[in-house]
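Submission sheet (multi-component)
Chains listed below:
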Amino acid sequence: MPELPEVETIKRDLEKVIAGKKITKVCVHNAAVIKEPSAAEFKKKLVGRTIKRVLRRAKVLILELSSGKALAVHLKMTGQLVYPGNSSKSRVSFYLDNGKSLDFNDQRIFGELRLVDDWKKLKFIRALGPEPFDITLEQFKEMLRLKKTKIKPLLLDQSFISGIGNLYAAECLFRSRIRPERPANSLSEKEAGLLLKEIKAVLKEAIHYGGSSIDDYVRVSGKPGSYAQYHKVYARQGKPCLVCKTRIHKITMGGRGTCFCPKCQK
DNA sequence: AATGGGACCTGCGCGC
DNA sequence: TGCGCGCAGGTCCCAT
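Outcome: structure written.
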């Protein structure tokens, strides 16, 4: 579930509490989440390193280390980074020079940790499309014009635009009053402009509220984000539209649940 | 190129 | 009460 706003929130939270701290010990409770190098190498190369700063690219967190290497963290659906950790649910615990730990929790073990020399060369980083906040209106119109595919799955395509997931795609389309099954190249210039504006606005608001605590997402402190109370369509199937009271529909697109208002969204 | 499905996982809520 | 099933979704991979 963590999408751009949740990962950005974690990035900001993390930077405040762990930048400048040294890793003194690494406990691996489930090696499956370590994708590279081997668990043994992973530990050896992390111990003694200082976390210099924390970056975000799309839904990926990057912890830059004093060795010049970087730890890339993808939370996928249920990953959490919690500090100080209590290790009860931890898959990997990073002990720091103040005696506290940063815990990587991940109920479903989909998350991925990678310790690499150059994170920008990672295959899944190279394949990412632009960050939503970097896209200009002219660029966005051109991006849409070239695509015949349905707009909702397209917003989830990380090589098209990076950082949006199922929840925010639904919210952005609702606020833009665009049906999820509309072909991308059928959007008028006005609709494209509105969609880009709403994408930026929704993501910005969600970051402001510390993300949406649906399922497992929590902030680094373990506390929830508070944006879920402002959701307008996501997971509201069967309930009245907050604008026109029409019953919110839910369909499946590309294997994903997709909620929309059949009256408001054209 | 676009689309659909399965795989990876676990916990939850539902129906019987 | 308890069991089994489907669903939740980020991303990759394969097939059509």
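Remark: The radius of gyration of chain A is 20 Å.
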